[in-house]
Amino acid sequence: MRDRFLRACRRQPVDRTPIWLMRQAGRYMPEYRAVRERYGFLQMVKTPEVAAEVTLQPIQAFGVDAAIIFADILPPLEGLGFQLTYEKGEGPVIHNPIRQPRDVAALHSSDPRETVAYTLTALRLVKRELNGLPLIGFSGAPFTLASYAIEGGGSKEYRLTKRFMYEQPAAWHDLMERLSQLVAEYLIAQVEAGADAVQIFDSWAGALAPADYRDFVLRHTQNVVATVRSRLGEAAPPIIYFGTDMAGLAGELRQIGADVLGVDWRIDLDVAWAQYGYEHAVQGNLDPTTLFAPRELIAARAREILQRAGGRPGHIFNLGHGILTETPVDHVRYLVEFVQSFPLPAETP
Ligand code: CP3
């Protein structure tokens, strides 16, 4: 059953729980570091053969149940006119962030089929090598992309983002509309290039009060999902919406229209699933830091998650957020084997 990941996204029965890991291709892998020594990160993303090679590394090393294309959420912003670099130890930096409404008006319109053609080519290359194993495409969500566009990089409090949102609501919604169109177009292009499912990373939306999510973000996230679905019709893939610290936003998440909702480790999986509603599949939710613990603890925490899923169709095992640098590779292999050999518990009614 090579499609168990897609079946789980659609809440169909599977032979065992599928597992993949966010950021599964990355610096914790010696094979990745060997390639990375020769290229800058953006250069890797922009060279389809290299992106394809790195995408396949965790498939070969661990036999996970899905591949996720090697890319990043920020390069599509270059098409709007943002200058992006990745600095050692700092992560991404946008050198011309938005500070005023006129900065939004000055953004370029862009076609991701041209500006991130390299990722679409990489998808086509990977697809040929997967023998039917599902391939996940992804994009940042409008809010998380807006936060980088306004802060100019990562942030703890999102003070600039929230101020802009509160003080310049018209420009904010203009920005969010431009980003939503870009995201929808990019996801559609990825599906046309071979992605079998798409994940929308709203990593930092959990920083918002529910009322702010409702007033400033929800409609744009909904628009992305609705556009992908209506444009692709029958060919629309499962859509995964992921964020961290989302436990207080369950009522809003239910309204997005995603097939699968990501769950981080700050909430028990069954509690989240009940709040999100069983019409959604769920993906998660091991704390990535658990992979630094002894094997017995990794096994205990993974077992608990599988038991909380209760054999109900629609659970995809994953971490609650991306795998951390320096994670021991043998612990990753151990986790994947543990989940893949775990007998599905009889479904709890
Ligand atoms: O899951 C995968 O294996 C696919 C690849 C992937 C990357 N970034 C590769 C990457 C994915 C899905 C992302 C998404 C991403 N990128 C998000 C959303 C997911 C999340 O983690 O919340 C965000 C917020 C970004 C932005 C970003 N890119 C940051 C903050 C950083 C720096 C932090 C870090 O880990 O270095 C990056 C760089 C980045 N993206 C790396 C990788 C493998 C490390 C680059 C390197 O080799 O130096």
From TrEMBL:
<feature type="binding site">
    <location>
        <begin position="23"/>
        <end position="27"/>
    </location>
    <ligand>
        <name>substrate</name>
    </ligand>
</feature>
<feature type="site" description="Transition state stabilizer">
    <location>
        <position position="72"/>
    </location>
</feature>
<dbReference type="InterPro" id="IPR000257">
    <property type="entry name" value="Uroporphyrinogen_deCOase"/>
</dbReference>
<comment type="subunit">
    <text>Homodimer.</text>
</comment>
<protein>
    <recommendedName>
        <fullName>Uroporphyrinogen decarboxylase</fullName>
        <ecNumber>4.1.1.37</ecNumber>
    </recommendedName>
</protein>
<feature type="domain" description="Uroporphyrinogen decarboxylase (URO-D)">
    <location>
        <begin position="18"/>
        <end position="27"/>
    </location>
</feature>
<dbReference type="InterPro" id="IPR038071">
    <property type="entry name" value="UROD/MetE-like_sf"/>
</dbReference>
<keyword id="KW-0627">Porphyrin biosynthesis</keyword>
<comment type="pathway">
    <text>Porphyrin-containing compound metabolism; protoporphyrin-IX biosynthesis; coproporphyrinogen-III from 5-aminolevulinate: step 4/4.</text>
</comment>
<dbReference type="GO" id="GO:0005829">
    <property type="term" value="C:cytosol"/>
</dbReference>
<feature type="binding site">
    <location>
        <position position="203"/>
    </location>
    <ligand>
        <name>substrate</name>
    </ligand>
</feature>
<dbReference type="GO" id="GO:0006782">
    <property type="term" value="P:protoporphyrinogen IX biosynthetic process"/>
</dbReference>
<dbReference type="Pfam" id="PF01208">
    <property type="entry name" value="URO-D"/>
</dbReference>
<feature type="binding site">
    <location>
        <position position="321"/>
    </location>
    <ligand>
        <name>substrate</name>
    </ligand>
</feature>
<feature type="binding site">
    <location>
        <position position="148"/>
    </location>
    <ligand>
        <name>substrate</name>
    </ligand>
</feature>
<keyword id="KW-0456">Lyase</keyword>
<keyword id="KW-0210">Decarboxylase</keyword>
<comment type="similarity">
    <text>Belongs to the uroporphyrinogen decarboxylase family.</text>
</comment>
<feature type="binding site">
    <location>
        <position position="72"/>
    </location>
    <ligand>
        <name>substrate</name>
    </ligand>
</feature>
<feature type="domain" description="Uroporphyrinogen decarboxylase (URO-D)">
    <location>
        <begin position="136"/>
        <end position="152"/>
    </location>
</feature>
<dbReference type="InterPro" id="IPR006361">
    <property type="entry name" value="Uroporphyrinogen_deCO2ase_HemE"/>
</dbReference>
<comment type="function">
    <text>Catalyzes the decarboxylation of four acetate groups of uroporphyrinogen-III to yield coproporphyrinogen-III.</text>
</comment>
<dbReference type="GO" id="GO:0004853">
    <property type="term" value="F:uroporphyrinogen decarboxylase activity"/>
</dbReference>
<keyword id="KW-0963">Cytoplasm</keyword>
